[in-house]
TrEMBL record:
SMART domains: PHD. Residues 2-53 form the PHD-type domain. GO terms for molecular function: zinc ion binding. Residues 5-51 form the RING-type domain. Keywords: Coiled coil, Metal-binding, Zinc, Zinc-finger. It holds the Pfam family PHD. Residues 71-119 form a coiled coil. This is (apollo) hypothetical protein.
Length: 214
C-alpha cells in the first residue's frame, strides 16, 4: 500500500522507473507524468497537483495584493471626499448663520420702519386735529390771517393769543380758504363748539363784508 502510482493508480513495480514528489511525497511512474531524469531534477520535482496548487496560491497572492492596492486607493479617495465634504459643510453652516443674521437684521429693520410709519401717522393725525380751516374768508391784501383767527375766536367767546397760534396762512391764495395750526386740539375744539352754538359766523361779525362760515 502507498506504493501505487498517483496518476494511473497501478502498483509501481521495482523494475519500473519511479519519481517521488518533493512536496506531497506521492509516487508516480516516471512514464505516467513524462518525467525525464536528464532534463529535470529529481530533488526539486513537484507533482502536477502540487505544481497547480502552488500556482493557484501564487495567483491568490497576486489577487490579494491587487485587492489591497485597490482598497488603499478607495480608502484614500474616501478620505479626500470626507475632507472636502467637511469643508463644504463648514462653508454651508457659515453661510447659513450669516443668512440667519441677515434675516434678523431685515426683520428688525422692518419692525423699526413699521414703528416709524405708525408714529408719523399718529403725528399727522394729531397735527390735523389741531388744525382749523376757515372757508369763505374773503381775501384782503392787507389782512393778517392770525388777526382774523383771533377775531373769529373772540366771536366764539374764546380769548386766543398770538402764541397759541403756531401758524396761520391762506391754504390756497385767492380761494377764500384760510387755515391755522393751533397750539393744541382743545383750543380748536372749543372754538368749533362755540361757533356751532352761534349757528355760524358771518364776515360782518368780524368786521368784513359778505357771508362766511367755518
Ligand atoms: Zn502510473
Ligand atoms: Zn506532490
Amino acid at each position: 500500500m502507498g506504493e501505487g502510482c498517483e496518476a494511473c493508480r497501478a502498483n509501481i513495480n521495482v523494475t519500473q522507473k519511479r519519481i517521488k514528489c518533493t512536496q506531497c511525497s506521492r509516487n508516480y511512474h516516471s512514464e505516467c507524468i513524462n518525467f525525464n531524469n536528464d532534463t529535470a531534477s529529481r530533488s526539486e520535482w513537484k507533482c502536477p497537483a502540487c505544481t497547480a496548487s502552488c500556482r493557484k496560491g501564487g495567483d491568490n497572492k497576486l489577487k490579494l495584493s491587487l485587492i489591497t492596492e485597490i482598497k488603499n486607493e478607495i480608502t484614500s479617495n474616501l478620505k479626500q471626499l470626507e475632507e472636502s465634504h467637511n469643508s463644504l459643510l463648514n462653508e454651508y453652516n457659515n453661510l447659513k448663520s450669516n443668512f440667519e443674521k441677515l434675516q434678523q437684521n431685515v426683520q428688525n429693520g422692518e419692525m423699526k420702519l413699521a414703528d416709524l410709519c405708525a408714529q408719523i401717522k399718529k403725528e399727522q393725525q394729531w397735527r390735523r386735529l389741531s388744525n382749523l380751516e376757515i372757508v369763505g374768508l374773503p381775501e384782503n391784501s392787507k389782512e393778517s390771517t392770525s388777526e382774523l383767527i383771533i377775531k373769529i375766536a373772540s366771536y366764539a367767546g374764546i380769548k386766543l393769543t398770538d402764541d397759541q397760534i403756531v401758524f396761520a396762512h391762506r391754504v390756497q391764495p385767492m380761494q377764500n380758504v384760510g387755515g391755522c395750526k393751533l397750539q393744541n386740539r382743545t383750543i380748536k375744539d372749543n372754538i368749533i363748539s362755540e361757533l356751532r352754538k352761534t349757528k355760524g359766523i358771518t364776515t360782518s361779525d368780524i368786521g368784513l363784508g359778505g357771508p362766511a362760515k367755518r
